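Input for the complex:
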Amino acid sequence: MPQLNPSPWLLILLFSWLILLTTVFPKIMRHRFTNEPATQATKKHHPTPWNWPWH
Amino acid sequence: MTLSFFDQFSLTAFMGIPLIALALTLPWILYPTPQNRCLNNRLLTLQAWFIRQLTHQLFLPINPGGHKWALLLASVLIFLITLNLLGILPYTFTPTTQLSMNMGLAVPLWLATVLIGARHQPTHSLAHLLPVGTPTPLIPILIMIETISQFIRPIALGVRLTANLTAGHLLIQLISTAAFYLAFTMPTVSILTMGLLLLLSILELAVAIIQAYVFVLLVSLYLQESV
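Predicted:
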């Protein structure tokens, strides 16, 4: 399959990672998810927010 | 004649701009960036719902220490699903048919899971090379086999995605060519071939989604072993 072994291998690799890093990660990261509303009082449990943990 | 069917995967350029650059940059218009609003519009709500469900499902079997990979794996999943699905539309270029891109995604992700395991829990990671309950004489051979299988993982990851998508696109082109040329000589057979083409297109739709999911799922499995 000659078309699957062309010369710009490195460029394609770098460009796809560049698009991932600059465009896709920020878009996904801006999505914030709220916890489900609970029927119990807040004194009983404090759910921790989940916001794309990084560390 | 056969080789000309592979022309759909060659890197063409239109007015000086390579098509792969367009295929990689333009799809993200379909995903609006959410602002800091409590209530979003329907499209954002749907996307947020899908992303949340997929990420939740993906990270259920992984220890909480591995949840820092959530952004990376969710983004790669959305990336691959979008590119695969848009490639099924006629006259579009599918970047995931390029082995360079898939290996560029597979090798770093796999290597990262291996290095994380080797750094934080080296004994536990090495223990994965030997399944529980192996008879003692088989241990050396099994260690070698498991090491080889460990190194084949990134190659398999990249080539699986490339081959599935390339084969799917190729089949669609072949069968549609057959249906077209048969329409002049044997119309009934041509209609049957068109029916086959319809089924194949539905299969391609499923394959596009599933292959992207399998890619990310396997990376999460490798992560599960290391974290």
